């Protein structure tokens, strides 16, 4: 399947996807990497991998919807069949998201439904949680609220601070996201309008 990726930052999750593809473990085509930050490391990774890139500056648009509609029009024009948010730090307007619901996934650094939104590692530490993790989920208009597809878990160690926890979680993310994309590639994962299903089994 043809996949577009949106990222706002360094792109370590994108790097993990590209590495999985290089190893022959991920039979997908990346048709576009887009960002709201022209300086995003993710765009440099895409350029190095000869993947078309797109950087749209939100300041060039009158409002969020105008930006999102233009971005998603370009994603559609790329021929992408799936859209992966890998560290894309914007909330997408429901009107732009609509046609993509069911074909857009996100990786979020918490064990959803816990800690939707930002500062997830800090919130898990402050709550005294014994476990933390990452979730890949279908994206819906509800922020970090779509059906969870798969999760990676790790034990919070005594003395972990926010940075250490984030750094220990990242390698798990780098295994989780490619694994979910493999399901997409094998057409074993779909959205049935309200839940994620894998080979017919409700996740
Ligand atoms: C990851 O922790 C991801 O879970 C969250 O933002 C971070 C993106 O990191 N959405 P990177 O840009 O992929 O390195």
Describe this structure in words.
By secondary structure, the protein is α/β, with parallel strands linked by helices. 33% of the residues lie in helices and 24% in strands. It has six helices and ten strands; from the N terminus they run E-H-E-H-E-H-E-H-E-H-E-E-H-E-E-E. The protein binds 5-O-phosphono-beta-D-ribofuranosylamine. 5-O-phosphono-beta-D-ribofuranosylamine binds at residues 7, 9-13, 86-87, 107-109, 134, 173.
Gist?
By secondary structure, this protein is an alpha/beta fold. 33% of the residues lie in helices and 24% in strands. It is built from 6 helices and 10 strands.
Strand order of the largest sheet: 3-2-1-4-5-6-7
| H/E element sequence | EHEHEHEHEHEEHEEE
Shape: globular
| Helix/strand structural class | alpha/beta
Ligands and ions found: 5-O-phosphono-beta-D-ribofuranosylamine
What fraction of residues sit in β-strands?
15-25%
State the separation between the terminal residues, measured CA to CA: 22 Å
* Radius of gyration based on Cα positions: 16 Å
Helix content: 25-40%
Return residue spans where pLDDT drops below 50 for at least 5 consecutive residues.
none
Annotation field: number of helices: 6
- How many β strands by DSSP? 10
Mean pLDDT figure = 96
Characterize the main sheet: 7 strands, mixed
């Amino acid at each position: 399947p043809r996949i577009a990726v949106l990222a706002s930052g360094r792109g370590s999750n994108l790097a993990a996807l590209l590495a999985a593809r290089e190893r022959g473990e991920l039979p997908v085509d990346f048709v576009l990497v887009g960002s709201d930050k022209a300086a995003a490391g993710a765009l440099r990774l895409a350029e190095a991998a000869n993947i078309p890139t797109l950087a749209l500056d939100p300041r060039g648009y009158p409002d969020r919807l105008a930006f999102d509609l233009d971005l998603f029009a370009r994603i559609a024009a790329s021929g992408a069949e799936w859209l992966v948010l890998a560290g894309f730090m914007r909330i997408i307007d429901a009107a732009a998201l609509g046609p993509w619901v069911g074909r857009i996934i996100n990786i979020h650094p918490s064990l959803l439904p816990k800690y939707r939104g930002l500062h997830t590692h800090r919130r898990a530490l402050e709550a005294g949680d014994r476990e933390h993790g990452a979730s890949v989920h279908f994206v819906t208009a509800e922020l970090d609220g779509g059906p969870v597809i798969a999760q990676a878990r790790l034990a919070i160690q005594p003395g972990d601070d926010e940075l250490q926890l984030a750094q220990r979680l990242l390698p798990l993310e780098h295994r989780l996201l490619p694994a979910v994309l493999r399901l997409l590639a094998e057409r074993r994962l779909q959205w049935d309008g309200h839940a994620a299903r894998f080979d017919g089994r409700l996740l």
